[in-house]
Each structure stands twice: as structure tokens, then as C-alpha cells.
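call fold(seq) -> C-alpha cells
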Amino acid sequence: MSTTPELVWLNRQRAVSARQLRLPAVAEAVQRAWPDIAAAELKGSVLRRLPEICFVVVSDARIAALHDEFMRDPTPTDVITFHHGEIVLSAETARREARQRGLPLPAEIARYAVHGLLHLAGWSDGDSGAAADMRSIQEKILRRALRGLC
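ret:
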């Protein structure tokens, strides 16, 4: 099966307001990024075999618990991707990172979403070379997808 999955967005945190997150704008940017992400898909990818991809926005506490459970690291992180099609994003980490980078919060959330989708497309950031390659394609995709949205 090689279809375009349904992209579902869930906000499961209260630390950052929905107005600040602007998830409809983020969802639009990610939808615009989809063709470039699909074009970057690597062999063995699960991306287009998934009927649905669910983006779940959570607190730092929740993502830290997941990070500990699945990666034995009890600290908050930006995004965790599960190959069954769930991408968990930290709203609080995104807010901190957006402030440090001088970016709008929705752009940072979109960065995490594209990063997660690239993992589903077969990309890895397990070593410095792979991480640099993944970051390069990610930022190229984001520049196009965010134009005029955030």
C-alpha cells in the first residue's frame, strides 16, 4: 500500500495555549511539506504504508516520561517518533527553543513535525553525519513549507 496517510493533530497539554501553538497553521505547513517529505523517502520507509499519522503535542513532563520509558533518558526532548505512526512533540521545549532561535512557536512545532516525518521516511540522526544530512533536508523542506504561514 502506498497512500498518503491522514495527518491527525492532538493537543494533550495545557502548559502552552492553543492560541500560541496555532496548530491549524502548523498542520497547513506540514501538509504543504508533504510532497517534499514523500520525495525524500528512503528505501524501507514506513511513511506511506501508514493509514494515519498522529501528531500529539504534550508537556515536558509527559515527553520526559516517554523518553525515559523508551530511550532510558529521563529528560525532556523535542520530538519522539514511533514507527506505528505516532509523533510526540513537546510544546514547552518548542516554546523554549523558539525563543532561543528567535522564531515563531508554530515554526518550531512544524520543525519537530517534519523531523518526525523524516524519521518515518527512513531518515536517521543516529550519528553526526546522518544528523547533518537529515537536518539539511529538514531545513530545506521547512523553508518552502513555512513561507507565508508563520
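Residues 6-146 form a domain with the Collagenase (Catalytic Domain) fold (CATH 3.40.390.30).
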